[in-house]
Amino acid sequence: MLVFWKEKLVFLAVPKTGTTALEGALAPRASIVLRDPPELKHSAVYRYNRWLDPFFEKAGGQKMETLAVVRHPVDWLGSWFRYRSREDLIGHPNSTRDMDFDDFVNDFCRGTQPPHAAVGSQAKFLLKPDGSLGVDHLFQYEQQDKLVAFLEDRLGGTIEMKRLNVSPAMELEISPKMEEKFRRKRPEEFDVWEMGARS
Fold it and tell me: Molecular function terms in GO for this entry (predicted)?
């Protein structure tokens, strides 16, 4: 999480949406950088609204705006799948090594997810309990140009991002049947991604 006090902007870091690269580029300009623990760095909307927003308002007498990035659900799961296939997780319950991507997506769609597919939810991170969007500004990961243009305008200056914390490279494909199931079982994940296009 990055807090830009003068600009009244808080960047909420949705996991696996390029947040480490954004943090690397923007941390020197931020008033507050929350890196640890992960629960604080990746504070979801509900946690931010309950604890941090009231604190910021009382501390400085000002209302902050929030910003986040959302990634296409299939690509987002692909990033998690690749990340959990790395060497140091071999033998760990979270490992996806030697697993089929369709099986991983299927496990994510289950009511009770096995450890390797328990990766959270972009929808739960970004939406309020009533299903409405919980951030003021939401950008799709796939439209980096719009995000960078917004940040350069809001923060001033040029922003150069380097790729950081990149998942291992591998070709992934989801079968049409599994993608249809994913959309049917977890429609909120696709709904929140579409909200990013309208912000």
Answer: kinase activity
